[in-house]
Amino acid sequence: MNNIESLLRHSLSPTEGDAPDPRINQKIMQTNQEVIPMNKKQIRRPILAILASAAIIVSGGLAATAAWHYLNPAQVAEEVSDDSLAQAFRSKDAIAINEAQIYGDYKITLMGMVSGKAISSQHLETSGELQDNRTYAVLSIENRDGSPLSAHDNISEIDDRIFFTVSPFIQGQPTNRINVTTMNGGICTFLKNGIMYQLADCDSLEAFADREVYLSVTDTRVLDSSAFEMSKDTGRISRRKDYPGVNAFFTLPLDPKKADTKKADAQLKAWLEPVTSEKTEFTIGTDDRKSTDAERITSGWTVEDIKKKCVCLEEFTKNAKPDKEGLIHFSYSQDGHGGDGSFNLEYEFRNKKAGTTLEIGRGADEERVEFYVATKEADGSYTIRLYEINVADIK
Fold it and tell me: In whole angstroms, what is the distance from residue 241 CA to residue 98 CA?
């Protein structure tokens, strides 16, 4: 980045929201049988939007930005080889949003969205049925100071320290039940010119246009519903201002004319119905990827649910204090699969009292779902436990 651009971006940056604690530095568990953390497993298909002008609305004001610095939505779709979606984002149905929010070190921009039937060349099947009526949205995530997230646009260079979860929510629906997992959501992430592009999609949201629909971004490996709160009176969802991490929150400008209460009620029912016997198949070009519905079924499980329904693999329980880099290493291996990685639990448990237990990660393949649960001890150490449940046993 040249000096002129750096100065321009700095002088015109929007004001910061609630500043979070320093960024978490964690390495996601990698396994030799593709036991993939759930938010990573949703990396399936691209999503698009439109950067229509150089004006970005931020907190009621305007912030100029160099439009040429960013990919436009059609280019984002083309980057992931989805020419059909690129065409959709060049159509009159695409909605330009271009709302930017800054939290901590990051500037997150919701560039735009589009909804429609069969507008992508990438397909999703659930229980043998093609799910082609989808909503697509694209976000850009960048360092607030304009420096590149990665000098070489290599996602693997930042995978152990920068990660985000994108999820839609609907007014009146609990965030731990209706979210990216239950909505058959997906995400595709790549870097270009030092900027991260998140292309997210889910089942169509247009039927819910008679109420508020949202899109959230948290700096967590899995959805953290505690970053948001819902009004008991109105059902409106909002970001928690006291949340210590990134919790960007956007209201989607859906067309009220496309609201359909009957379709919305049927969609909610479908999202909440557990599916235990069928599999979900994702297709990207010639690359077929399969996943069980276990992610959707277990998305709302609390720590108490995990303890009650899963088996604790006691032989892998570990108690340790963070090393000089603030990390705790955890690894296991059994029956041909396993994991190895590090957790920054000081960040995960910020402002939490001793005795607090949190889920710190999860992974799934076609046979099992695994949960990583940690407890903060009074002596400053942490106890990490691994829980497992067979997909066939999930109810």
Answer: 22
E strand or H helix at 374: strand 368-376
Domain range list for the chain: 3-291, 301-393
Q: How far apart are the C-alpha atoms of 347 and 345, rounded to whole Å?
A: 5
Q: For residue 357, give both structure tokens.
A: 């237990």
313 alpha-carbon distance from chain centroid? 28
Verdict on whether the full-model pTM lies above 0.85: no
Residue 167's contacts (CB-CB under 8 Å, 6 or more residues apart) are: 175, 179, 180, 185, 215, 216, 218, 223
Task: Tell me the per-residue pLDDT of 352-373, one tens digit each, with 9 for 90 and over.
Answer: 899 999 988 887 777 888 889 9
Distance CA 301, CA 344 (A): 22
Mean pLDDT of all residues in 77-102: 92
Mean of the per-residue pLDDT values of the chain: 76
Q: Using alpha carbons, select from 110, 119, 172 the residue that is nearest to residue 141.
A: 110
pLDDT at 295: 66
Assess contact for 250 and 97: CB atoms under 8 A.
Answer: yes
Place of tokens 């993939």: 36
Lowest-pLDDT choice from 84-93, 147-156, 205-214: 147-156
Q: Token pair for residue 47?
A: 């999503």
Cα separation, 300 vs 359, in Å, equals 12
Tokens matching residue 385: 């436990």
CB 122 within 8 A of CB 47: no
Question: Measured between alpha carbons, how far is 226 from 37 in angstroms, rounded to an integer?
Answer: 19
Q: Is the pLDDT score of 156 beyond 70?
A: no
Q: 263: Cβ–Cβ under 8 A, 6 or more apart, which residues? A: 207
Nearest CA to 374 out of 309, 330, 325 is that of 330
Structural tokens at position 50:
């439109």
Whole-angstrom distance, CA of residue 221 vs CA of residue 240: 18
By percentage, how much of the chain surpasses pLDDT 70? 72
Tokens 């609990």 correspond to what residue?
A: 174
pLDDT category of residue 92 using cuts at 50, 70 and 90: very high
Q: Is 307 helix (H, G, I), strand (E, B) or coil?
A: helix
Contacts of 168 (CB under 8 A, 6+ apart): 135, 179, 180, 183, 185, 202, 205, 213, 214, 215, 216, 252
